[in-house]
Amino acid sequence: MTLAVEPTVQVSLITAGGTVLVTLLGIAAEFLRRQTRALNEVREHTQEARDQVSNTHSTNLRDDLDSVMYRIDRVLAGQERHDEALRAQAEDIAGLRSDIAHERRERLAVSERLDDHMAATSA
What we know:
single chain; 123 residues; mainly alpha; 2 helices; 89% helix
């Protein structure tokens, strides 16, 4: 049992098969083009991310951040000590102002008594 197909049918089948094959190749080429574009975009984003997080020196970024945080903690502790010292100075200054005000009142009282005494003796 042999299948004998007329030459015109053979030509039509070959032409249809070629058309389908070219169409499939075109779809595959478009798919590959889109995939290549997507991969290139991912590659660019990956490079940008790498540029943002990579160090240009020999130390690790996390170690650098830990070191900076330690130094900031030391600065904050020093600032707290400074604030305590300023509060103590403010208390000392307030005490001195109180003492000076008291001394001034006593000096004015003595001056007034002296003036009264001078007025009484010269009269």
